[in-house]
Write a structure and sequence with these properties.
Chain lengths: 228, 228
């Protein structure tokens, strides 16, 4: 038997289709996947159940769920009992920052990913952000990710000792349709994912997240397997 | 009655003497203090009890403790059952990174502080790091803090809309003795603080943290009130 070593990547897995796809890309690139999810006081647990299914289906070596409660200060429709916007067309979404924005969420998520990456000697952190569909979210832009990467390399033992951390956002310039096509090619089973902001039995088809997902599948010419 | 508005600052309060002092400086500068502490799986709860006393004594408007568990991956003597180093002189400490280093800890702490700051419209985040006594810790250096500040301003709604976040580390170039003298002048009651890595009834006086504290009080020519 010969020993083999695969490089490791920490992959943020939310349970949605973007992070499932970026995780599949990490696997395709040959990384052992350390899947990381957050139970942060979001509106429902369906996305965490989806994250668990996605991590297992993509062969993650380990899946960790970090729990904390952003409802302690709120500040978002996702971490309070505010209503989420419904029935907005995708043209109405970009440009402004929706009330579903959670202050500093990706900074918090990436910080935990960095801590785990340093601990398991992973140099790559994958996340599924894209700046086309969510141009309003400041923490989904390449400029922010580059700044975080600089911070990561200055603020860690491994980084200052010459191990370079890379923040990988392979979907950042892709449309939802392109993401879906890439995922289908990689064998991602989107029936396992969950995008709806509400946590009911079936997707509501009216929230921003459902509308963007439906538009993506329609433009890709693929039927969403979650809709059965 | 006239309405008045004080600017707000989120202050990281660990229960130790450095963060008590930096929080006192924030108060002195006229900020309303939003004190933030973390129950992250550290070795004991004495420092959290100290944080609560310090936040109250310094008149914090609110004190929030965010709970998460870094023992899920460990990586530090503070988040595993490893022994902490004992009986090292302060000359042996700088230069190497001790096993009490917690991967990405200050990045994680600052990320939460940023989320809360954005939510309560605070533009200033105070923390008690200093790079002289802890030159080994990469996330206690000015270079790291500047990089985080850039990240904060790119990764938030408020930052991208022109509200500038400032990471304030007023102790960064001070010795422990200078910090203690400054704190005493500001009326900080160091009897309320806790520095020892162990969580026993009294400070052990043998861990790195006790040794640096004792050296600081000795050099300042002040008796540590915690020692009764």
């Amino acid at each position: 038997m010969s020993a083999s070593f695969s490089p490791r990547a920490v992959c943020l897995v939310s349970g949605g289709l973007d992070s499932a796809t970026s995780t599949a890309i990490a696997r395709k690139c040959g990384f052992d996947v350390y899947a990381l999810s957050f139970d942060y006081g979001q509106r429902h647990r369906k996305e965490l159940e989806a994250a668990e299914r996605v991590a297992a289906a993509l062969g993650a070596k380990r899946h960790v769920v970090i729990t904390f409660n952003l409802r302690q200060w709120g500040g978002s429709a996702l971490t309070t009992d505010m209503d989420v916007p419904m029935d907005r067309s995708s043209e109405q979404m970009p440009g402004d920052i929706p009330i579903t924005y959670v202050p500093a969420r990706n900074t918090i998520f990436l910080s935990f990913a960095l801590g785990w990456a340093e601990t398991v000697q992973a140099q790559h952190i994958f996340l599924g952000v894209n700046q086309l569909d969510y141009s309003g979210y400041p923490d989904c832009r390449a400029e922010f990710l580059r700044a975080f990467e600089t911070t990561a390399n200055l603020g860690t033992k491994a980084g200052t000792e010459g191990q370079h951390f890379h923040i990988e956002a392979p979907l950042i310039q892709m449309t939802k349709a392109e993401i879906i096509r890439a995922g289908v090619e990689l064998g991602v089973d989107y029936a396992l994912t969950w995008s709806c902001y509400l946590g009911e039995d079936r997707p509501c088809m009216h929230c921003d997240s459902c509308i963007l997902r439906a538009k993506g599948f329609a433009e890709a010419g693929i039927r969403d397997p979650l809709l059965g």
